[in-house]
Amino acid sequence: MITMNINGKTIECQEGQSVLEAARSAGIYIPTICYLSGCSPTVACKMCMVEMDGKRVYSCNTKAKNNATILTNTPTLMDERKSIMQTYDVNHPLECGVCDKSGECELQDMTHLTGVEHQPYAVADDFKALDSWAKALYDPNLCIMCERCVTTCKDNVGENNLKATKADLHAPDKFKDSMSKDAFSVWSRKQKGIISFVGSVPCYDCGECIAVCPVGALSYKDFAYTANAWELKKIHSTCSHCSAGCLISYDVRHFDTLGEESKIFRVLNDFYHNPICGAGRFAFDVSSSPKGSTNLKEAQNALKECEAVRIGGDITNEEAFLIERLRKELNFKIYNQEAYRFQQFLKVLGEVKRPNIEEIKTSHLVITIGSSIKTENPLVRYAINNALKLNKASLIAMHPIKDNALANLCRSSFCITHEVGAEEILLGMLLKMLNIESAALKSLEDSKQSVVDEAALKALEEERKKL
């Protein structure tokens, strides 16, 4: 741990942590527009500028330094941020009354925060054609080129489908000598490009690019012009489509004249820290059906008469708790096939440490066995991609069917195909190669059967030597 002084407050932080993340961890606010936690910094907005030991730096890509003195809100910095916001507001369409982002727009928030009251800059506007992909609608006229969408697609989702491409727009060159350097840099960047879909295959539609957009440039096709942000009530929940249990919120509004029936209009997530998949974002139809009082009464009668209840592996902890309360009250048995199988698995391999999502992101080597990550747990795939892109990790994926979603993440990905049912043998081989002596190894030893080719084993051995 190292110490720094920010605005007169001494804080402790991890060595190698960015100044921005260190400040946020200590509850110190530094404004940003382009930055996403856990992703590579783009330094597109420059709003995170601070003074570090008397020199201006960008806190998103500057590492914390022991005994450094940092100021975040000097008059000079605040004037610079105001100038940047003035450039962002140039020619931004005044559609706030009908824009889907109105009421939760970061451009609105930052404009108010920096105190923009007049507009000293101007440049001729340009025609920009609308675009779309999957469920996303893209309006480049509203885009401020923060490139958050590009960043999350690359560093979180791992698809690299979006890119900032060149655009022939009017440049603000006449203001170069009359405005601050950072403000001019941000404005010039905004006037030089638009976001384009450049993927070689169709987007598989996670909607993360829409979620991270700070303005109304990217919106959902199904949500466009259906509701305003301030009309929607947030109901916090847990996604149950896979074992990750992502935190989400349902945006709900009544859809009848009496206000008795509610409808889910969209699903949101904390995109700064918790990207979600397309199933979590768009598969909310089952939760948005009218009240089923008849079905509820039938379920009540069935619970009173049954001897056992079979539950799936997709229930939340809260639902499991309620089922257990009912079991104690009504005296029936609970059966969960997935939990039982996992329990048997843990009896053999439970002593080997199981990493969480954050530990995967900081790993140097990730090995997956017997799981189609893309469909079974997309959040794990996001974490693996994050480790490969930002931590320069290596990946070894073992499955009877080659997982192209993992194989294409980076060059240091090795996909090993094996015979169906050979997972136990592979686990035993791994424990041996990693020199882990345990009861798990004894129960898995059966290395006579050949299940993978020699090239794959050689790649596995090379990765082991790096540990």
From TrEMBL:
Residue ranges of domain 2Fe-2S ferredoxin-type in the record: 1-76
Keywords assigned: 4Fe-4S, Iron, Iron-sulfur, Metal-binding, Oxidoreductase
Record-linked PROSITE patterns: 2FE2S_FER_2 (PS51085), 4FE4S_FER_1 (PS00198), 4FE4S_FER_2 (PS51379), 4FE4S_HC3 (PS51839), 4FE4S_MOW_BIS_MGD (PS51669)
All copies of domain 4Fe-4S Mo/W bis-MGD-type, residue ranges: 232-291
Positions of the 4Fe-4S ferredoxin-type domain: 134-163, 193-223
Pfam families documented for this protein: Fer2_4, NADH-G_4Fe-4S_3
Domain 4Fe-4S His(Cys)3-ligated-type: 76-115
A GO MF term: oxidoreductase activity
Class of enzymatic activity (EC top level): oxidoreductase
Signal peptide location: none
InterPro entries: 2Fe-2S_ferredoxin-like_sf, 2Fe-2S_ferredoxin-type, 4Fe4S_Fe-S-bd, 4Fe4S_Fe_S_CS, Mopterin_OxRdtase_4Fe-4S_dom, NADH_UbQ_OxRdtase_Gsu_4Fe4S-bd, PSI_iron-sulfur_center
Enzyme Commission numbers on file: 1.6.5.11
Protein name: 2Fe-2S iron-sulfur cluster binding domain protein
Organism per entry: Helicobacter pylori (Campylobacter pylori)
